[in-house]
Specification:
4 helices, 3-stranded antiparallel beta sheet
Length: 231
């Protein structure tokens, strides 16, 4: 058998075969595996969700009209992404009986950490913009900063920036006020960076656990890199 040297494009089968302790995403034909969030990270994300959910989803002391999901699996064309939080307007929301959706949300939030910031900025943000996700939040509780991006001509542009302890009325949820000091600090995930896997790079068994736990790739492999544009 002749090896053409071409990397096989990842498929949904690769997502299903990924280790259960990893978050599996496909972007531009590459499979990216990230460790599941640590408990403190998960607590911070669910804390933010709780602040948004009551007034915006259930309409308690707020306008309602939104539908929120924590870590939903979203298929955008051949891409598969799992944002930390996503929200759809009630008049255009996914099937509640489904385990995944192909309907782009109106809003997403990614919690930045040392291990995921580059992946979120250079891979996921451009994809969200391309598929019409109207607004994206990048939250860095460790740096006391919230960046709000809106789509203009198919690209994200920074439309709001909040820092330190100032009051937050961020698009598209200007009806409620948040503060960064009310959201728990987001810790780093376990590994240094998401791992990019191509053909023959999904390694099962004990060796796979060692590779993932140490945050390294098999010899001769390197994570794919991408430019910092959000288009």
């Amino acid at each position: 058998m002749v090896d053409s040297g071409k990397r096989r494009r990842a498929t949904y089968r690769d997502v299903l075969d990924a280790p259960p302790w990893m978050v599996a995403e496909i972007i531009a034909g590459e499979l990216y595996l990230s460790p599941r969030p640590a408990f403190r990270h998960a607590r911070a994300i669910t804390g933010l969700l709780s602040l948004l959910h009551s007034p915006l989803d259930r309409g308690i002391d707020g306008p309602g009209g939104w539908f929120f999901l924590l870590e939903p699996e979203i298929h955008l064309g051949r891409n598969v992404v799992v944002p930390d939080i996503a929200a759809w307007r009630r008049d255009r929301m996914p099937d509640l009986q489904a385990k995944l959706t192909t309907l782009p949300p109106a809003w997403v939030c990614e919690g930045l950490s040392r291990s995921t910031a580059r992946h979120d900025r250079t891979r996921k943000l451009p994809l969200y913009a391309r598929y019409g996700v109207e607004l994206a939040w990048l939250l860095s509780a460790t740096e006391w900063r919230l960046e709000v991006y809106g789509v203009t001509d198919g690209q994200y542009k920074l439309v709001q920036l909040f820092a330190d302890d100032e009051a937050i009325r961020a698009q598209p949820f200007e009806d409620i006020e948040l503060r960064l000091d009310s959201i728990a600090t987001l810790p780093s995930r376990v590994s240094e960076s998401p791992l990019a896997y191509g053909e023959r790079m999904i390694i099962r068994g004990d060796r796979a656990f060692e590779v993932i736990r140490r945050g390294i790739l098999p010899r001769g492999r390197r994570p794919r890199t991408q430019s910092s544009t959000f288009a």
